[in-house]
Design brief:
Elements lengths: L6 H21 L3 H17 L4
Helix pairs in contact: 1-2
């Protein structure tokens, strides 16, 4: 279960984070390493929403 927060701003923030993550991976020299790092950070962000 995730915290009760307004869905529109949450969805916009998550989409922005995903978009920025994709851009960071696309621009990286070491795409595999960057993808792993971004995935770990994004999962930590999502886990922080759990109650």
């Amino acid at each position: 279960m995730i915290q009760r927060v307004p869905l529109p701003p949450l969805s916009h923030l998550l989409l922005a984070a995903l978009t920025e993550s994709a851009l960071q991976i696309a621009d990286a020299t070491d795409k595999d390493r960057t993808r792993v790092e971004v995935e770990r950070a994004f999962m930590a962000l999502l886990e922080g929403l759990r109650v």
